[in-house]
Design goal:
The chain is an alpha+beta fold. The relative contact order is 0.11. The termini are far apart. A hairpin with a 2-residue loop joins β2 and β3. It has 3 domains: about 110 residues, Butyryl-Coa Dehydrogenase, subunit A, domain 1 (Orthogonal Bundle), CATH 1.10.540.10; about 120 residues, Butyryl-CoA Dehydrogenase, subunit A, domain 2 (Beta Barrel), CATH 2.40.110; about 130 residues, Butyryl-CoA Dehydrogenase, subunit A, domain 3. About 45% of the residues lie in helices and about 15% in strands. The strands form 3 sheets. It has a 4-stranded mixed sheet with strand order 1-4-5-8. A 4-stranded antiparallel sheet has the order 2-3-7-6, with no helix packed on it.
């Protein structure tokens, strides 16, 4: 068991490293999350940073040593991640690999999978993307129609996937595809693949966002051939494996590699903006209505942060023990959207300035507000998340 003295010493060590090694601000605009990485210079800057953090030993610390991880207790990774947030260093771009694909492979993958993929995920040598959503099916993931047909020792892929973040930079994709019709049970015909991306017939096409940035792609499969060994589990087990993946994506299951996965824009930044903004010649924070809204946001942000602690205290989590973890994605994404919306309201008419040189904070809040909607959609929309909590946590009937 790690002693308090060991943790304190490690905290000093990682704090000093982050202070000394935080990279200088680049001459170009950095993306807010992995979903906005749209230029080669952004990508290389962020990948170099992740590799540097990995080489220093501060990501994947709790993953097994034999696969490239640190092999230490999770508490050390928690300390290192908090230090990254404290020093506001860049996020680690391989989000899907670090937080979804990697934990899944460690949980369900073969020994060959672990040896092949885990170290590359941590070092950012191998970038991962996700092939779940499709253009015609929205949140109906179980109705996926991208086909994978077995042909000897290969599968032939046809169809398309949408919202493939990092698709143009990814080496691998976690892919849900239909290997049979499944009869009356559409879920039974789905299979799960750890698919290579650098294959003839796989073409990711970037999608321009409201902000003018890229990052999302639509990925097309046109008679693309991948090795049959890319199948995870057995044919027809895709839905089960996809549901396990989503527990990692939504934070309901632990085991992620650590590190920041987005730009650290938080409630303290909103408070500072309220101090700088003006209402009738005075700081906006002195307006009682604004103070009331600000306090409510602070309470929500603090409550969301403490949810993790609550989950570890049986007396506070006995009624609905799964609620804190399963509600994390919904709470975090909706809070970010509301914070950014409030920040825009503080700016009055200036809130309409986004591309203007006179925009407050360089248009950061406008950009963040528009980008915030992607998190309320990806990984299951907020409406779907409410349904999940109602049915699986509260036990409410589907109708």
């Amino acid at each position: 068991m790690t002693s308090e003295a060991e943790l304190t010493e490690f905290e000093r060590e990682v704090d000093a490293w982050m202070a000394e090694n935080k990279p200088a601000e680049p001459a170009f605009l950095l993306p807010e999350t992995f979903m906005e990485v749209g230029t080669d210079e952004q990508f290389e800057y962020l990948r170099d940073w992740q590799n540097k953090v990995y080489e220093a030993g501060y990501v994947g610390m709790a993953w097994p040593k034999e696969y490239g991880g640190g092999g230490v207790e999770q508490v050390f990774q928690d300390v290192a991640t908090r230090a990254m947030a404290k020093h506001r260093v860049p996020f680690l771009p391989n989000t899907i690999g670090l937080n979804w694909a990697g934990p899944l492979i460690l949980n369900l993958g073969t020994e060959h999978d672990k040896q092949r993929y885990i170290k590359g995920i941590l070092s950012a040598e191998d970038i991962w993307c996700q092939g779940f959503s499709e253009p015609d099916h929205g949140s109906d993931l179980g109705n996926a129609q991208c086909r994978a047909v077995k042909d000897g020792d290969e599968y032939v892929l046809n169809g398309s996937k949408i919202w493939t973040s990092l698709g143009t930079y990814a080496k691998y994709m976690i892919l849900l595809a239909r290997t049979s019709t499944g009869g009356d049970n559409k879920y039974a015909g789905l299979s799960y693949f750890l698919s290579p991306m650098h294959v003839d017939g796989i073409e990711p096409r970037p999608i321009k966002k409201l902000t003018g940035e890229y990052g999302f792609c639509q990925t097309f499969f046109n008679d693309a051939r991948i090795p049959a060994s890319c199948l995870m589990g057995s044919e027809g087990e895709g839905w089960r494996i996809a549901m396990v993946t989503l527990t990692f994506e939504r934070g309901a299951t632990g085991g992620q590699a650590g590190g920041l996965s987005f730009m650290d824009l938080n409630i303290n930044d909103v408070v500072e903006l309220a101090r700088r903004s003006r209402r009738n010649g005075r700081p906006a924070l002195e307006d009682p209505l604004i103070r009331d809204e600000m306090v409510q946001l602070i309470v929500d942000a603090r409550g969301s942060m403490l949810m993790g602690e609550r989950a570890r205290i049986p007396a506070l989590a006995s009624d609905w023990p799964s609620a804190p973890a399963m509600s994390g994605k919904l709470r975090g994404s909706e809070l970010k959207r509301r914070m950014c919306q409030f920040a825009l309201s503080l700016q009055g008419a200036n809130g309409a300035r986004f591309v203007s040189a006179d925009a407050i904070d360089g248009g950061m809040w406008q950009r963040s507000y528009l980008n915030a909607f992607s998190a309320t959609i990806g990984g299951g929309t907020s409406q779907i998340q409410h349904n999940i909590l109602g049915e699986r946590v509260l036990g409410l009937p589907k109708d």
